[in-house]
Known about the structure:
Elements: H1 7-11, E1 29-35, E2 42-47, E3 53-57, H2 75-80, H3 84-94, E4 126-132, E5 142-150, E6 160-164, E7 167-172, E8 175-180, E9 190-196, E10 209-214, E11 220-224, E12 229-232, E13 238-241, E14 245-250, E15 258-264, E16 267-272, E17 278-282, E18 293-297, H4 327-330, E19 350-351, E20 356-361, E21 375-379, E22 384-393, E23 396-407, E24 411-416, E25 422-426, E26 438-443, H5 451-461, H6 469-475, H7 481-493, H8 497-505, H9 511-523, H10 543-555, H11 562-568, H12 574-584, H13 594-605, H14 610-620
Antiparallel strand pairs: 1-26, 2-3, 3-4, 4-5, 6-7, 7-8, 8-9, 10-11, 11-14, 12-13, 14-15, 16-17, 17-18, 18-19, 20-21, 21-22, 22-23, 24-25, 25-26
Amino acid sequence: MYPRSLGVFLALGAITIGNAAPPDPSVFETTTWAEAPMLTNPTSISFDTEGRLYVAETERRAAVDVDIRSHKPWIMEDLANQSVDELRAFVRRKFAPEQSEANQKWPKDLNQDGRHDWHDLKEITDTLRVLEDTDGDGTADKSTLFADGFHEEITGVAEGVLWHEGDVYYTIFPDLWKLRDTDGDSVADERESMFRGFGVHAAFDGHDIHGLTVGPDGMLYFSVGDNGTSVMTKEGERLHYPNQGVILRCHYDGSGLEVFAYGLRNPQEIAFDDYGNLFTVDNDGDMRGERERTVYLVEGGDSGWRLNWQFRTEGWSKYTKQPTYNPWIDERMWVPQEPGQPAYITPPLANYSIGPGGFKYHPGIGLNDDYRNFFFLVQFPAEVVSAFRLEPKGASFEMVDEHPFHEGLMISAVHFGNDGAFYMADWEGKWQPNDKGSIKKVDDPREVGSDRRKELEKLLSSDLKGKSKEEWLGYLGYADQRVRQRAQAHLVREKLAEPLMQVAESREAKQLARIHALWGLQQLHGEGVERFIERLPFQDPDDEIQAQCAKVAGNLQLQAAAPILTEQLEHSSARVKFFAAIALGKMQPVYPQAFDALVKMIEENNGEDAYLRHAGAMGLRAYDTTY
């Protein structure tokens, strides 16, 4: 049985608690915003700028989505699959019409042709729906089917949706889709498979594509579970990670697809904080003594998981009288940093949670100020939505102020609305789809209708075409992350490099405004921003500004910054050293003087900070053919 409260975890001492008491969630009220039959079986939700809610729904899960746990004799054959085409051949072979008698238990004869075969796996589609509150009374009153027809025999479960600047991104094995409604009827009339090749194994259902997220660098980020990835980029490169979960990113037109981090099991959703740091809570491997993990996702980071370890024999060896060897467990890759772990991994920050699902960061205006800088995590089987903060510790972070935020509902996904309220998708069941589902709204009645809430909703819903350049620059420091991102995107589209540089170098500007300005300059790569190298505030008294300068210089491959980055390897801030080392690894041609400095940094760290060790290795990779 799963606990209804997380107190047991706190008692184990696995989670650090902050100095002050966590905020009080009892001040919030929960109401129903929408309910069945307007929606059923919600798995992911996303608002557009008009306040319409896009809901990914599933009927395929368990009914027609193959799960290898129900077909254990096929495990080795399934692990041999290396592409979705091989998976399709495997599925058609195992569920061939002549195998109907052997497969009578599953699947059901859904097409009623008298056979239990792969044709039945095509009979159920997952769907994407739009919910609207058209009369402004605070509850949804209109439900429209936005898109369906996702029902190949190898189609997985719809697990991700993101509205972004008129496009709707939607994930379901084996594709990442881009959908668009061009005539305003809330029905997609354009659809494009941006990428195909996700889910090369049947493996475990639910280990799908999800986590669609807007990145600080103006890129689309998303996660894929350990059912595997083997996908061709627009540029013709094969990204082949068949036995592990990965975090990918690309531009919104699909160009530049790359793996950002890997070695994960099933990171349901990912979330950026205000400073561009990326986190997830990853599922455990259902093994002896193991637990889920809070993970700091860093560029090039390997969390250590491989799908094939899932199926290594559990138990005791009759020869050694010891537990059978499993690298994940026996090399302690699932626990926070400790001596003896493999040095190539970036270990988790904490062991934490039960069945992690939806995951979001407080955008800045929402609920109330007590919850600023908090992350919100769905713990699905425990019927808990928990909240916690992540504070800097060395080159990474530690978890503090963890507490239950909401309890008692089978929540699957969460999202902050344009009105500042916290919306939760209620599955209203256990693991199987049903005819139930609702959207709950959580909010602080003291904040509803406040001036800042009204202003936020206006800024998120308006096209803002009449705003001046000065107003847009001012929004770079706005209290809400979504407005800052919108301002950054506008200034980039207008190619306003000089105004962005002026904000970035101004010590009078707000810290977050300066950081968004730096990110905007990075997005203007190819627009001559290299000319600003001497003006980048590497010597700023704010260590965070220095760290962000290093990050941007590396992403832009500003060769002229290499001497400064090399000096930063001896900085007092581990975070500055972290980004300087990674940046140096991107310089081509390499900066020869940095080699000895990188080695020195690694030696002085002596493995004490796993993330500095990783950054050093990332820095040295540029020298693998030089030294």
